[in-house]
Amino acid sequence: MKEHIKKLLRKSCLLALFLTTVGMQGLYAQKTVTGTVLDEANQPIPGANVVVKGTNNGVVTDFDGNFSIEASSENVLSISYIGYAAQNVTVGNKATITVTMEPDVQQLEDVVVIGYGTVKKSDVTGSVSRIDSKSFEDQPLTRVEEALQGRAAGVTVAKAGGQPGGAVKVRIRGVNSVTGNNSPLVVVDGVLGGDLSTINPNDIAAMDVLKDASATAIYGVRGSNGVIIITTKKGSGKGKINVDYFTTVSSSPNSVPRLSASDFATIENLRRTNSGGAAVYTPAQIAALEASGGTDYEQAILRTGFSENLAISASGSEGKIRYYLSGNYRDEEGVVINTGYQQISARANIDAQINDKFKIGFNLYGSTSENQNNTDRFGNGQGSFIYKALTWDPTTPIFNSNGEYNIRSAVASLNDNPVRTLNETDIKDIEERLNATVNATYSFTDNFSYSLIMGSQTSNLNIERYAVEVGDDQLPHTSFANNKNVSYQISNILTWQKIFKEKHNIKLTGVQEYSNSKFRGNGWNSNDLSLNGRGFYFAELAPNSGQTVNNDFNERELSSFMLRAEYIFNDNLFLTATGRYDASSVFREKERWGIFPSVALAYNMTDLIDQSGNTSLKFRLGWGQVGNQNIGPYSTFSTLGFNSYAADGSAATTGTFINRIGNPFATWETTTQGNVGIDFGFAQGRGSISLDGYKKVTEDLLLDAAIPDYDGGELGDRTIVKNVGEVENIGVDVTIGYDIINTENLNWNANLSLSYVKNEVTQLNDGLTEILGQFQAPGGQGNILNFIEVGEPLGQFRGATFLGTWKTTDNIPTNDEGTPVAKPGDARYLLDENNDIVYGAIGNGTPTTTWGFNNSINYKNWDINIFLQGVHGFDVYNIQQAAIVGGAGDSRSFLSPDQVNQWTPTNETDIPAFAGLYESSRYVEKGDFIRLSNLTIGYTIKDIKGLGDTTIKLYGGGQNLFLITDYSGYDPEGTSRRSEQGNEDVASGINIGAYPNPRTYTLGVKIGF
Fold first, then answer.
1. What are the residue ranges of helices labelled H in 828-955?
2. pLDDT band for position 952 (50/70/90)?
3. Is the Cβ–Cβ distance between 151 and 856 less than 8 Å?
């Protein structure tokens, strides 16, 4: 019986085991799971990856987004597609699965590029401002600088003038160098040395501006002026095509006041007779001028300009490849006759995720542009063509009775007819660019990766100059210059990151980098061509014409090593330390290497002040040093000059002499900066305030120090480059953002960026308290308009202090010879104890305060962008007005309407009856202004029947619609400076005929499908 029971138990156990096994097999049985992957618009996504997590079992969705895969109930399917956030779905009992993917916008919204890597916004320790494309996409732009203007605290953007393709100055937290370039470093997709003026704004996904030294030290010797990191767009999701076309009508918004032709003739007669001469115009001629109005040369050279801009892009992803392709065409007419700019550019960004460990990207950009009659090529020794037009004789018509140009006039400006100069001159700046970048990343493990960036940039600028010249022959002269820049960069980047015990996050980044750039220039010029009016390509030399040929070459190299350590404790404490070791070939071998360290600390106090998430608070501290190597490649070396001398009094012998003495001990300018910052968020993320205070000191300025005669200073250049001098910038940056209205149909987002910076020169070489600048006033007298002064900001104006006029009752002082220094009616200036005119500081052209107020309003399908900009705390040295008054060089007649009320013995006003100095405080004006930079209104049409996902946006608006200022000229932002007149920041705010900044009206359409 017992044996029988044992057999029965054994059979029962075997049966139970059998049933359990069958049940388990049923539980883990594979089944066919089908599904569909859709995008955010419920459209199918072809090429999405569907993988059974933890296995190699995977499939790809078909053209309709469908898939079929073998999986068991407990398996998890991982669905991924480039440009979308990956999703995990448990199979369970489902036989059919529908997955809706969401775009992965984390890169743009939550991540900031800090150089050789990224961090979450919440983890940033340095002072970094982000400008994403959403903030400027509703403003019709042709220049990237316009997207920066007023949108990042601490960034100042100033247009030198309104010429298409003209220079735009960008500065971050003041200016540092007296002789070097103060422009920020531009990094495009990891490649250093980009040019903002050539980039299509539609290609930009975001810009990150690194402002303090703890952020810029990552770029060492190239980061002293701040860094602008540009990330161009990448493709994602379903293929999309976008077309943006707009056309503009532009004109000069105002006119510079001048005398009418009849009043000019009357005042000119008075000027001549006051000086003991004879009247020029008869009463009959004056009456005729009053009837005809004479000739307004300002209006003769100005016109209405028509421009158009077309941008087309295609983007998307197919499987593991994503793409962004774009093209841009610009055709801009200037508001001055015979000026304009054309550009064609194209970009291709291709990224491929080869496998889980390796990804690679290729970026290619090319452009060609042509600038017609760039004002910088005219030569402004006697003022720009605007300067000449505003001072030309209104009583002389453009053409004579034979239909030929009236070339010169006996009154007013002694220059050539500006209408003839502009119409008969053909100067073309033709530039071709090609930039190529390869980015590759290989992940050895989840914690350790290697990245390679290889980039090359080529720029070829040809300047073809065919211009009529002022002179006795009146024949055209030509010149040609070719400037070719070729550079390349290789960056090797190692990154390691690991989280320990869920609280300690450590990230190390190491970089080895090499860059090289070469410049080759050659050209020629020739005078007195025999074929007048035929153009540059038909030029033939006249007998005995002058010719010169020139060639130039220079090269610079930069070799670097960098290590950055980032530590985060419990998502509250953030520490970043960086060290960069740079060597630049512009310095001698013993002074070539420099070490640039930085450290930054941040603490997130959100958990201490608010557990609900309504508010957030973070404190930041940073310190660091960066360098400046912006001197010529061979500036520290001696150069030779050549001359001939007849030692025996008969035959001359050619010899050499030291033209410039080199300095083997010259080294970096070093900028040390400290930063304190607070980031505050409130109203559940609707509002934010960021406040930064900083002090930035640039030491060891590279200045030209005088050489005594006994040491060779009597020959050649009497200076030597030395590390002497110091400049200080102290400032505050404020950024405020708030969603004023945030409802389902109506949204209003407002952002204010405000910056204040006080610049000061604290030390100069050899104990000097001031150094003369290089900006010479028009007219050829060599009078200097600017200087550098210890205790004052860069940009000091130099001149006499104007005190009105000498009156008949004044006790007019005498000179050493007993002769009165002036007569009643003359301009009166501040005198010293010897009765000589005192020349000193009379103003400054460097602004202290800049701000921008950007508003984006959306109501259903309508959107409005309103952008206001302001600049304050600076002066303008209006030498243009001095010429109109009649005291500047070759412009000797009165054209100012004020002269109607000039001094007379019976009406002793403070308006001189005789020409005075043009370098005086009489022509210094406050430059403060507020501008409505943009007002654009758009309407978007969606869900168009029969057109699928196509959207059409129609928009219109205006730029530079109004300007609030007390300045008497076209625009206080406009300045003019010849390239040989020194650093533009040392000569800021001086106007000798800046190109008018136009007012534009825009109509456009955007189509997306």
1. 879-885
2. very high
3. no
pLDDT confidence of residue 378: 73
How far is Cα 239 from Cα 315, in angstroms, rounded to an integer?
6
Judged by average pLDDT, the poorest of 170-174, 251-255, 607-611, 982-986 is 607-611
Is the pLDDT reported for residue 713 higher than 50? no
Query: Domains of the chain, with CATH numbers?
Result: 14-100 (2.60.40.1120), 106-235 (2.170.130.10)
- Shortest CA distance to 990 belongs to which of 1002, 969, 974? 974
C-beta pairs of 62-65 under 8 Å, 24+ apart in sequence: 64/36, 65/36, 65/37, 65/38
Query: Is residue 23's pLDDT more than 80?
Result: no
The answer to whether the beta carbons of residues 754 and 849 sit under 8 Å apart is yes
Distance CA(347)–CA(453), nearest Å, equals 18
The answer to whether residues 458 and 434 touch, using CB atoms and an 8 Å cutoff, is yes
Instruction: Name residue, tokens 């090529």.
Output: 377
Contact 391, 883 (CB under 8 A): yes
Give the residue among 576, 575, 579, 574 at the shortest CA–CA distance from 563. Answer: 579
Mean pLDDT of 553-582: 94
**Whole-number Å distance between alpha carbons of 739 and 550:** 59
Return left, alpha or beta for 120; rule: phi > 0 is left, psi -120 to 50 is alpha, else beta. Answer: beta
Which of 393-407, 646-660, 686-700 is predicted with the least confidence, judged by mean pLDDT?
A: 646-660
- Phi/psi region, residue 191 (left: phi>0; alpha: psi -120 to 50; beta: rest), is beta
Q: Which H or E element spans position 266?
A: helix 261-274
Element (H, E) at 558: strand 547-569
Nearest to 337 by CA among 996, 980, 1007: 996
Distance CA 77, CA 50 (A): 6
In one-letter notation, the amino acid at residue 842 is: I
Q: Residue-wise over 13-46: b if at least 16 C-beta within 10 A, else e?
A: eeeeeeeeeeeeeeeeeeeebebbbbbeeeebbb
| Per-residue CA distances from 628 to 404, 654, 841 (Å) | 54, 39, 28
Q: What are phi and psi of 627, to 5 degrees?
A: -115, 175
Residue at 989: amino acid letter? G
Under the phi-then-psi rule, with left for phi > 0, alpha for psi from -120 to 50, and beta for the rest, what region is 298? Answer: alpha
Region for 193 from its dihedrals, namely left if φ exceeds 0, alpha if ψ lies in -120 to 50, beta otherwise: left
pLDDT above 50 for 5: no
How many other C-beta atoms are found inside a 10 Å radius of the C-beta of residue 911? 20
Q: Which residues contact 953 (CB under 8 A, 6 or more apart)?
A: 938, 939, 940, 941, 1005, 1006, 1007, 1008
Determine the Cα angle at 884 with ends 882 and 889, to 5°: 60
Mean pLDDT lowest among 388-397, 483-492, 763-772? 763-772
What gap in Å lies between CA 875 and CA 770, rounded to an integer? 20
Query: Any idea which of 133-147, 323-337, 870-884 has the lowest mean pLDDT?
Result: 133-147
Judge whether 754 and 722 are in contact, CB under 8 Å: no
CA nearest 636: which of 588, 707, 589, 591?
588
What are the residues facing 553 on neighbouring strands?
520
DSSP-derived secondary structure for 286-304: HHHHHHH----HHHHHB--
Residues 877, 918: Cα–Cα separation, whole Å: 10
Tens digits of residue pLDDT in 496-536: 999 888 889 999 999 999 999 999 999 888 765 555 555 66
Phi, psi of 256 (to 5 degrees): -85, 125
Is residue 676 classed exposed, middle or buried when 0-12, 13-18 and 19+ CB atoms within 10 A define those classes? middle
The tokens describing 961, both together, are: 């619609």
